[in-house]
Amino acid sequence: MLEGRDLILATRAYAKEYRGRSWWHLIITLVVLAAGYTGVFLPTPLWAKLVCTVLVALTLGRMFVLYHDFLHQSILHNSKAAKGIFTVFGWYMLAPVSIWERSHNYHHAHNCKLYTSSIGSYPVVTKEKYLASPKGERTVYMFVRHPITIGLGYIFMFIYGMCIRSIMSNTGKHWDSIVALVFHFAIGTGIFLLAGWAGLVFGFLIPFIISLGLGSYLFYAQHNFPGVQYAEKDGWTYHDAALSSSSHMKMSPVMRWFLANIGYHHIHHLNPRIPFYRLPEAYKAIPELQLAKTTTLLPWDVVKCLRLKVWDPVQQRMLKRSEIYA
Fold it and tell me: Partner of 29 at 20 to 30 A CA spacing, among 140, 141, 297, 308?
């Protein structure tokens, strides 16, 4: 059985992109996205607009994973054209490069490490710390992890968390968060002026609410699922965090396409330089990667993940709200 550094070394064979394949995936994603927007803004029936707005939302999710891979330098590294496309896309999605790259890289380096993993991730505290905290802190903690807050990731995670909060913390360092807010809402205003309320709702608001809400949930459930393990700083290791604290989210072939294999999240955490289209290849080739804990997007699994609130180091598991005071 491969473990630790040996397992990481085994994944290196897959951390090589095929440049033509990367460009193909980017181009086909942009074509599908353009087709969806065309269906939204043309004088189509309401049912067609609804279908197209969902298509746009899911394709924005796929494009975000490609953006995420680009910033990990796993696809199209050193391409000026790709850098231009993804920089603008980051503004559009309210995830500008400076804050996304800083917080996400920190997340990878401290994944599921108690007390230091909250930057770039959802906060997790122990049962003891939660019970000892003032009521106001407990309220904020539960609010951040509330299903409605996660579902409205467009507002709470992206508009506020990625942009407004980063501007407030360091305006000079995160000036592109200002650019992102201006660019994003300028696009929304332009759509309203050209296409009216229908265009704004179907071509802007619904796609962002769906795509960023789904993205927020995925980011949550990838590290908050039944069986997840958290560790103190001294007992934490990078490879254990990848395999024990990152889920394999099983999806249908359709959703695997729209979410660009993000369900193989444990492999991504083990080696973020593997291009998204090679993650299934690594999964099939290395038996140890097939042992990760799993979850799905099925309603009952979503509920199981959302009910988890605090970590109990005694029982070595996440507790539901009803179990905190038991």
Answer: 297
For residue 159, which amino acid is it?
A: I
Q: At what angle do helices 206-221 and 46-71 cross, to 10 degrees?
A: 40
**Encoded tokens for 166:** 């980063």
Q: Which two tokens stand for residue 217?
A: 């949930």
Contact predicate 278/270, CB 8 Å: no
pLDDT in tens, 241-266: 888 899 999 999 999 999 999 999 99
List of E strands, 78-126: none
Domain carrying residue 77 = 4-9+17-324
- The DSSP element (H or E) to which 308 belongs, if any, is strand 308-312
Based on the structure, what is the number of domains in the chain?
1
Percent helix, strand, coil in the chain (nearest 5)?
65, 5, 25
Tell me the CA distances in angstroms from 89 to 96, 133, 180, 318, one per residue in order. 8, 39, 9, 36
Closest CA to 7 of 213, 244, 323, 313: 244
Instruction: Evaluate if residue 117 carries a pLDDT over 70.
Output: no
- C-alpha distances (whole Å) from 12 to each of 7, 110, 260 are 9, 21, 20
pLDDT, tens digit, 9 for 90 and up, residues 128-149: 999 999 999 999 999 999 999 9
C-alpha 80/C-alpha 82 separation (Å) is 5
